[in-house]
Amino acid sequence: MSNAEDPVEIEDVEIIRDMDWALFCRIGRKIRFIPQVLLKAGSVRKAGERGMMIMPNWLATDLALA
Prior knowledge:
The protein contains one helix and four strands. By secondary structure, it is mainly beta. It has one domain. Strands 3-2-1-4 form a four-stranded antiparallel sheet.
């Protein structure tokens, strides 16, 4: 059983726009705003970057990403 705070790796992320407080992202076929403060080290964070994003399990679940 996973903990709500356990990190989840989300693949196929493209940062469309980066702002001080959030990232506007394309994740697969979904578009989402992700609060930057909740992301873990190793996540893509700048506009134009593509790759992986690491976030708490509860956030990935709430955003229908996990």
